[in-house]
Specification:
This protein is mainly α. About 35% of the residues lie in helices and about 5% in strands.
């Protein structure tokens, strides 16, 4: 069974689809709020306090990602969360909701996890020779100095590759 065929709670299905399309961490999807999105500009502005590295992250949204958002937007009208829990629009999906859905689809823990979508994306993009700096930016990985401070490297894509 594929994620698109999943017939469980629509918010979980949408969260898994959105996760695959944006390459963010599962917790970032779970905590996504309506005010973080500019659907007209097709960008998701994740604030620093919700990011692992404590730096804001702007995620460009593909037409497919916008379509997933459109499908769940009405489900979250009562609260600020885009992917609310089954029990309350005021609470995010549980930490295990996406992994539990993957298990119900027949995938074992050793086959796929929600966080593993990021690894898969990185592997595919690297195998297709995309610019490593772009891949790292998509994954919100930051280069750090020896003291641990974030560095500003050359502009993304300046190497001339994809």
């Amino acid at each position: 069974m594929t994620v698109d065929e999943y017939d469980g709670w629509p918010t979980i299905k949408a969260a898994l689809q959105f996760l695959a399309l944006t390459c963010v961490r599962p917790g970032e999807v779970r905590g996504a709020t309506r005010d973080e999105f500019d659907r007209k500009k097709a960008v998701w502005n994740i604030p620093a306090e919700r990011m692992k590295m404590r730096a804001p992250h702007d995620v460009p949204l593909s037409k497919q990602a916008l379509s997933v958002l459109e499908g769940v937007w009405q489900l979250s009208e009562d609260g600020g969360l885009v992917f609310p829990s089954i029990r309350s629009t005021e609470r995010p999906l549980s930490e295990n909701a996406m992994n539990a859905a993957l298990r119900r689809m027949g995938y074992g823990k050793d086959e796929v996890t929600a966080h593993g979508f990021r690894v898969t994306a990185s592997t595919i993009l690297n195998a297709r020779d995309y610019d490593p700096d772009v891949i790292e930016a998509v994954l919100a990985h930051q280069t750090r100095t020896p003291s641990g401070a974030p560095t500003t490297e050359r502009p993304i894509g300046s190497s001339g590759s994809r």
